[in-house]
Write a structure and sequence with these properties.
It is a single chain. The protein is of the alpha+beta class. It has 5 domains: 138 residues, Response regulator (Rossmann fold, 3-Layer(aba) Sandwich); 53 residues, no CATH class; 59 residues, no CATH class; 48 residues, GPCR, family 3, nine cysteines domain (Tumor Necrosis Factor Receptor, subunit A, domain 2, Ribbon); 253 residues, Rhopdopsin 7-helix transmembrane proteins, CATH 1.20.1070. 43% of the residues lie in helices and 14% in strands. It contains 20 helices and 23 strands. It has a 4-stranded antiparallel sheet with strand order 3-8-9-10, with no helix packed on it. A 3-stranded mixed sheet has the order 17-19-18, with no helix packed on it. Strand 9 and strand 10 form a beta hairpin. Helix 14 runs antiparallel to helix 15 and helix 18 packs antiparallel against helix 19. The longest helix has 35 residues.
């Protein structure tokens, strides 16, 4: 077994044949070997001729005549008795015999013998078996009556049958028996010569007893040319190995042992072209004999308990590749085993692609929003000096439109492939676009509230209500967000990172948490709440000043939408990232659509589709008591935004039907002759008047 291990030959199962075996003994051996190593077909047999025959019979009873390829020892050799009637089980078996040269003198002597001149009892049995005859036919027939399968056609032996090459072949070990006898004789002769000082005969040193160890030493030194070749022994008392190899083959309808090679002094010579495996390998390929089959891709060998030879194949885990035949190793994060499980490949990195259904809807809505915003800007620029545009607070409207336009652009930064640039741009524009929009709305609602509220307490014009002041206030509000974003970018530089929600999924995203994203919108949410507060406080303004109502509706809708968005956005962080990003895009798009539709749709409608309403009145009108309550007594003239002149000049004239929806008041401040400092308020900005 040690020799086989050095040759990388594994012994899958080893069984010992008991001294007095039965058929059950051999049946159990065959069953055990097949069960333990079903793919091991080579069976090395060290057994006597009788045991070999019984083993072949057990193989036949197990219906495994095509399974085993036997390798027999020299005790099997080329003996026909071992395989008689078990030819199918033994077909393809490889046996060996010590290399020999038939002794011609023995052949001459043995073939001259016959039962008539040789009285040895066993010789008659040999003669009957060799020539298939019997000296006692009656006894043979009585024996055959109890064995129906035996041959019943029996001839009488005459004793004069002739040995022919077909029925006689010298036993393979005859030459070795002859050489063994000569070796003993040579050793004894040399010992006698040494002990008796070269004299003939038996001296007292010999007759008084010979030490066996001494005789063994003489035997090891023997060397001569014998019948089987050169005879000599090594220090262990073994003769150098020299064997002839045979294979039991079927040639036409006969079975015989065919020489296939030899082994001389450690060198093997094998004629593979002469090998024949019969039914055990129909294509005549050398049958494979393995303890366990090689493992498939992605499987490793795992030895069974108590078995150092065979193994079972175990599949590597989903995230593992086969490092070697016995070891699985985990792939690094972001990789998975390749198709053959011999290494790891990078996992396809996911992010929200433009072609994704989750991105198409926000992109289409953003494009439509951008086109609509650009159209409104174009209308405002083209009709910049018309009454409706002038009375709407052009400066803040342009700021508001820029904020809405940036809001519609924001989804493109969210959907774009994450990179350092897009992540930086996303941080800047996400909160800034919303802040610009609601800073303009907050400034506008705050101005309207202060104008009407101050008129109840004083006739003095509120401070910081001029267009320039409004732009400064709006810029200051926006600068808070800008400063916050700059500090954020400095403290936490934008970068991308890979998320691993599962072992088989890699998501590329900007390195920012959901909490940080929500925090970046916190200031915008504060502006939304303030705008909503002022919109609520101006809800009872005269109905003709309906822009406040549009702003109020815008803010109510925005508050409801963002109140629902924030918990949903944070709640979907553990689900699909595509849903979360789509929700963020839709939320900012809808808020922009609501602002654009509620604030600017009525103005665009009047300017484009109802131009007859976009005209100045034909005369200056007298203010009613509600104007007086807002701007002071009727004896004074309001300056822009409520400030009073000391000497009023008021006249009346009939109003034009074309300005029923947009009556305009012109208040000039004392000492001012510039139209840029005029404040034009239509019914959307000041209380209604009676002529």
């Amino acid at each position: 077994m040690n020799v086989s291990n050095r040759r990388d030959i594994c012994i899958a199962a080893s069984e010992v044949i008991s001294r007095d075996p039965t058929n059950a003994t051999f049946d159990n051996i065959v069953e055990y070997v097949i069960k333990k190593a079903p793919n091991a077909k080579g069976a090395v047999v060290f057994a006597s001729e009788t045991d070999v025959r019984w083993l072949l019979e057990a193989v036949k009873r197990a219906n495994k005549t095509k399974h085993f390829i036997m390798i027999g020892s020299d005790d099997w050799g080329t003996k026909h008795n071992a395989v008689e009637t078990q030819e199918k089980s033994a077909e393809g078996a490889i046996t060996l015999l010590p290399a020999r040269t038939p002794d011609k003198g023995f052949d001459s002597y043995f073939t001259s013998l016959n039962p008539l001149n040789h009285t040895n009892f066993w010789f008659k049995q040999f003669w009957e078996r060799t020539f298939h005859c019997s000296f006692n036919i009656r006894a043979k027939r009585e024996e055959a009556s109890f064995r129906p399968t035996a041959q019943t056609s029996i001839t009488r032996c005459t004793g004069m049958e002739v040995f022919t090459p077909e029925v006689y072949e010298q036993e393979g070990k005859v030459a070795f028996v002859i050489d063994a006898t000569y070796a003993l004789a040579h050793a004894l002769h040399r010992m006698q010569r040494d002990l008796c000082n070269g004299t003939d005969g038996m001296c007292s040193a010999v007759t008084q007893g010979v030490d066996g160890k001494m005789y063994l030493d003489y035997l090891k030194e023997v060397a001569f040319k014998g019948s089987s070749g050169e005879v000599r022994f090594n220090k262990d008392g073994d003769r150098p190995g020299s064997y002839d190899l045979y294979q039991y083959q079927r040639i036409k309808n006969n079975y015989k042992y065919v020489p296939i090679g030899s082994w001389r002094s450690g060198n093997l010579t094998l004629k593979t072209s002469d090998l024949r495996w019969g039914e055990k390998s129909p294509n005549n390929m050398i049958p494979a004999s393995v303890c366990s089959l090689p493992c498939a891709h992605g499987h490793i060998r795992k030895k069974r308990e108590g078995d150092e030879c065979c193994w079972v194949c175990t599949k590597c885990e989903y995230q593992q590749y086969r490092h070697d035949e016995w070891t699985c190793r985990n792939c690094t994060q972001g990789t998975l085993p390749d198709e053959n499980r011999t290494g790891c490949d990078d996992i396809f990195i996911e992010y929200l692609h433009w072609s994704s259904p989750w991105a198409i809807v926000p992109v289409v809505m953003s494009i439509l929003g951008i086109l609509s915003t650009l159209y409104v800007i174009a209308v405002f620029v083209y009709y910049n000096d018309t009454p409706v545009i002038r009375a709407s607070g052009r400066e803040l409207c342009y700021v508001l439109l820029v904020g809405i336009l940036l809001t519609f652009i924001t989804p493109f930064t969210i959907i774009s492939r994450p990179s350092t640039f897009t992540c930086c741009l996303r941080r800047i524009i996400l909160g800034l676009s919303v802040v610009i929009s609601y800073s303009a709305l907050f400034t506008k609602t705050n101005r309207v509230y202060r104008i009407f509220n101050s008129g109840k307490r004083s006739v003095k014009r509120p401070r910081y209500t001029s267009p320039r002041s409004q732009l400064v206030i709006c810029s200051l509000l926006v600068s808070v967000q800008v400063i916050g974003v700059v500090v954020w970018l400095v403290l936490v530089p934008p970068q991308t990172e890979k998320h691993y929600p599962s072992r088989s999924k890699v998501i590329l995203d900007c390195s920012v948490t959901d909490f940080a994203t929500s925090l970046s919108l916190a200031y915008a949410m504060l502006l939304v709440l303030l705008c909503t507060l002022y919109a609520f406080m101006t809800r009872k303004m005269p109905e003709n000043f309906n822009e406040a109502k549009f702003i109020a509706f815008t803010m109510y809708t925005t508050c409801i939408m963002w109140s629902a968005f924030i918990p949903i956005y944070l709640g979907t962080s553990a689900t699909d990232y595509k849903i979360q990003q789509m929700l963020l895009c839709l939320s900012i798009i809808i808020s922009a659509i609501v602002t654009l539709g509620c604030i600017f749709a009525p103005k665009v409608y009047i300017v484009v589709l109802a131009p007859h309403k976009n005209k100045k009145p034909t005369g200056t009108m007298v203010m009613n008591s509600r104007v007086r309550s807002a701007c002071g007594s009727a004896e004074n003239t309001c300056r822009p935004n409520g400030e009073m002149k000391t000497r009023p000049v008021l006249t009346t004239a009939p109003t034009s039907n074309t300005t029923s929806s947009g009556i305009e008041f012109d208040f000039k401040a004392a000492g001012s002759g510039s139209d840029d400092e005029q404040t034009h308020l239509n019914r959307q900005d000041l209380p209604s008047t009676d002529v």
